[in-house]
Amino acid sequence: MTGKHDPINFLWFIPTSGDGAYLGSNEQTRAPEIGYLTQIAQAADRLGYSGVLLPTGVACEESFVTAAALAAKTERLQFLVAIRPGTASPAYYARLATTLDRISNGRLLLNIVVGGSPAELAGDGIHLAHDERYAHADEFFTVFEELLEKGVASYDGKYIKATNAKLGFPSVQNPRPPLYFGGSSDAGIDFSVGRVDKYLTWGEPPAQVAEKVEKVRAAAAKKGREVSFGIRLHFIVRETDEEAWAAADRLISKLDDETIREAQERFVKESDSVGQKRMAALHGGRRDKLEVSPNLWAGVGLVRAGAGTALVGSPKTVAARLREYQDVGIDTVIGSGYPHLEEAYRVAELLFPELGIARDEQRHGFQTDFAKHQAFGGGSHGGNLKVVSGS
C-alpha cells in the first residue's frame, strides 16, 4: 500500500459479562446491567464507532436480546451478534436474525462462533470434536442462507435435517446481513472462506497476521471467493506513550501470580481453540514478556480468554501500529478497553483524529457559539472562552 490509508472501520465492544478498572480483581467492577450497557452503546453511536460486538457464552447476557434492547436506544450503530450452530436450529436462528435486522432497520451483523470450551458446548447439547463442528456448521449455514435468500429450505445432511423449513419475513439487508467469522484452525479457515464476508483475527503481531491473511486469501481464491479482514484488539491510548504504558501497568497492578497461573491452566484445560493457543504462546503466562511486538501488549491475555492483546501508546504511536495492520489487509477493527465506557471516549477523542474518523458532531457540522472556536472553560457562569487567535 502507499502512505495514504483510508479511515479504518472501527467497532467497539459491549461487555455483557461485566466490566471493571482492573484485570483479575474484584475492585471497581461493574455489573452488565442494561443501563450501563446502554450508556456504552449510546456513547459509541455518538462518537463515530460504526458498530459494536456483543460476545456470547454462558457468562454473557444473551446477545440477540441485548442487541434488540440497545438497537431501540441508538440510531446508526450496527450490532455484531453471535450465531452458535447447534444451540438452536437454522430456521430458529433465521427468524431471530431477520427480526433483529428489521427491528434495527438493517443494522445487524452476524458473527459465526463455532469454537470455544468443549465443556460449555456440551452444556448446550453440542458433543462434536473440533473439526467435526465445522462440518456441522457448514450444513447449518446451508439451510440458514437458503432460508434468508428464498424463504424456504429443505436439507437432509449428516448433522442437519430440515423438511420444508420456512421463513415468514425477509431481512432488510439483501440477501442477508453480513457474516463475520474468527478461527485459526485449518478446519475453521476452510469453512469460513466458503461462506463469510469478513474474516477476523485476534491481535497477533503484524507479521503473524500477514501470514494468516495470505493463508485465508489463498484458501478463498481456491473457492473462487474473496473475503475482507478485521482484527480484534484492546486499546490503551493516552496523550503520551509514557502515560499509556503506566495505564497498562495499572490495569494488571492488582493481579497476583496465582490468579495468572490458574487462568492459564484453565485456558489449556477447557479450550481446544487453536487461536487461544496462539494467544497464550505470545507471552507464556509471564509478566516480563508482555510486549510481544512494538506497542502490542499481551497483559490482557494473562487472565482473559480470547482476545488478549492491546495496542499501547500515544495517538500517533497507536495509529502507526494500526497502519501496519492495514498494510497487510486489515480494514476493520473491533476494539475494547477497561472500563469500556471511559475508554470508548479516550479512543474516540485521542485516536480517531489520527485515523481520520469523524465523530457525530463533526458529521453534522455541530459548532458552538456561531462557529467561533472556544476553549473549554469548565462550565462556569462565564461559559467557555472564545479563542480569538489564528486557529
Automatic annotation (TrEMBL):
Q: Which gene encodes it?
A: ssuD
Molecular-function GO term, any one: alkanesulfonate monooxygenase activity
Family, similarity comment: Belongs to the SsuD family.
Q: Which CDD domains match?
A: Alkanesulfonate_monoxygenase
- The keyword rRNA processing is annotated on this UniProt entry: no
Q: Where is the Luciferase-like domain?
A: 9-331
Please list the reactions this protein catalyses: an alkanesulfonate + FMNH2 + O2 = an aldehyde + FMN + sulfite + H2O + 2 H(+)
PANTHER family to which the protein is assigned, alphabetical: ALKANESULFONATE MONOOXYGENASE (PTHR42847), ALKANESULFONATE MONOOXYGENASE-RELATED (PTHR42847:SF4)
Gene Ontology biological process terms from the UniProt entry? alkanesulfonate catabolic process
HAMAP family attached here?
Answer: Alkanesulf_monooxygen
List UniProt keywords, sorted A-Z. Answer: Flavoprotein, FMN, Monooxygenase, Oxidoreductase
Species name:
Rhizobium grahamii CCGE 502
Which E.C. number(s) belong to this protein?
A: 1.14.14.5
Per the entry, what this protein does is:
Catalyzes the desulfonation of aliphatic sulfonates.
Protein name as it appears in the record? Alkanesulfonate monooxygenase
